[in-house]
Amino acid sequence: MVLHLSSLVLGTNAIHAFLKHYIIYGLAFAFLTTTSLFYHTCEKNESPWHLTLFWLDQAAILSVFLTGAYYALQIPFLQLITAVVAISLCIIYYHYGRQTKQFCWDPQFGPLYHMTMHVMGSLGHHAILLGLV
Questions:
Q1: Residue 30: C-alpha distances to residues 7, 45, 96, 103 (Å)
Q2: Torsion of the alpha carbons at 64, 66, 70 and 73, rounded to the nearest 10
Q3: For the whole model, what pTM was predicted?
Q4: CA–centroid distance for 56 within its chain
Q5: Average pLDDT of 5-23?
Q6: What pLDDT sits at residue 43?
Q7: What does the longest C-alpha to C-alpha distance in the chain come to?
């Protein structure tokens, strides 16, 4: 349940981007919010529906990452450092954690780390949006 709600945090980035007239960034976050919400409410199994949602979510993450990276090149140093630290922690929590069975993949605390990853990623991208004129 906590991952359903923390997925909605990503929607704040879509709203922020649309309000600042960064339509592509807003659409990328709307896509990510939608896929993340569906993925985290779907029953975890190896069905075609679950696998499709997984890959759609991965595509949405990549679209947000690439769009954010493009805009990150245009922001002041302080916002850039904030964004890089937050997004790097997300990558560590998910990918390094997957290899070592820690963080998001920890049997007991995984959902808490995953929720934290949603929030940190959102904050990192908010830092990018705040740095844009």
A1: 11, 25, 26, 26
A2: 100
A3: 0.94
A4: 13
A5: 97
A6: 84
A7: 45
Kindly list the domain boundaries of the chain, sorted by start residue: 2-131
- AA identity, residue 81: I
Q: Is 114 helix (H, G, I), strand (E, B) or coil?
A: helix
Other C-beta atoms within 10 Å of 104: how many?
A: 22
pLDDT at 66 > cutoff 90: yes
Residue 48 identity (one-letter amino acid): P
**CA pair distance 38, 50, nearest whole angstrom:** 9
Quote the tokens at residue 129: 């949006």
Helix then strand count (H, E) for the chain reads 6, 0
Concatenated DSSP letters for 7-22? HHHHHHHHHHHHHTT-
Contact 41, 4 (CB under 8 A): yes
